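User: Please predict structures.

Assistant: First:
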Amino acid sequence: MNNQNNNSRIELEKKLPKYLKVEEDLKYRILLGEWKPGDQILTEEELCRAYKVSRITVKRAISELELEGYLYQVSGKGTFVKDFQEEIQEKKPVAKSFTNEMRERGFNVITTRVMLDQVPADATLAKLLDIDPATTILQLKRVRAIGDGDIIAYSVNSFPFSKSFSTDPKDYYGSLYEYLASFGIYLLSAKEYLESMLPPSSVAEMLQIPQTDPVLKYVRISHNADYSFSEHNLCYYIGSKYRYYVNS
């Protein structure tokens, strides 16, 4: 069974358009902080060599990232990482929680399982949260459901630990963002992206689905207004049960 699932994942990867693979990798490198806002990324020629793709493929990937707000181009100079900070400062502190999102859609939200750990931040999370490596963070893992227990999502929230925060899992069955707001921490939705994929075995187990069922992977990095607090949200939604809406 595992070999069959792995083969399915490999086949899915092979079917992805080349531009999308380049786009997702560049996006990931930006989110990791390899390029800061205002930095110039590699030239189109360098990207062609690095990813072994055509110039048309690179141009398509860059265009998609421009539309998503990650990059901008300056004629005759190159492609640069967009500065999100000014836009973020103007936004209201409303990084919408899963709880509030489902309530707005008319669903009763319940949390069926909570796991809470204090762990040292690895290098990747340290970069994303703008903290020193090995800084203690809280990692909150939850299985979310609607109605009478129909599982729809599995989420992992990571944020710097504070002695003010509870270490009792029972205190995290409700909205995390409402809980943080009780400490005067209001988060702004900064960067986010979506990806359709086949779930890792651990995620499939939490969602109680076969590994061959697709999920929607959602990643968001949020900050408060002065960037003194950051939160990383990784959520897997069951593809057949969830739709993501964008307000333009």
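Second:
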Amino acid sequence: MRKRRDSLASVVAKDLAERIDRGDYAVGDKIPIEARLCEMFNVSRTVVREAIATLRSEGLVTSRHGVGVFVVERANPALSITTEAVGELSEVVELLELRLGVEVEAAGLAALRATEEHLRAIRDVFAKTCDLDAFAEQPRELDYGFHLAIARASGNGWMPKFMAFIGPVIIPRSQLLHASQPEITRAYLQQMVDEHKGIFDAIAAGDAAAAQKAMRMHLSTSLERYKQRLVNS
């Protein structure tokens, strides 16, 4: 019985941690009260309390007596990439190399493991990028949303955590490449849409090799573009 309760507590703790990682509960937010969590997960108060204890031990939340449980900022994160840290072309190149190491595999896994819900989430973000005017308004956010949805569809819990932890800064600013050239930026966004379509179509078809190839081409194209820009700068 104890093992069963521990297992349930782990499931609840993992779910809440994922919600925190993706921003459902931001730093300073109060998470739902015990009774609500019991309803959400269909578990006992004992299970909920053990799950909260796990989150506290991981430095994700803190309890305030008589007030509730609140999300806290993690102390001394092992990895932190800020917007200021990715302001030069050389740093953009390094970041794209990092993304290649993770996202190609994520695309392949997504093709094998994505549920209908995952596919719908990827499709919804992709549909928003097809409106180039809307895409131009928030290119980083929508591009990041597309790649994050694929990471979630991979079925590997660490991949969306990696993406969520790094955040939208993982997407290079188009201004670094196309400053003061809006007509080129629009063509660039259309190319991104076309490449995203290839990735999504392969994932939806369940073709892991094609999904990996499409993601590798997408990221490698950007990587080579920025490398060339770096050489010419």
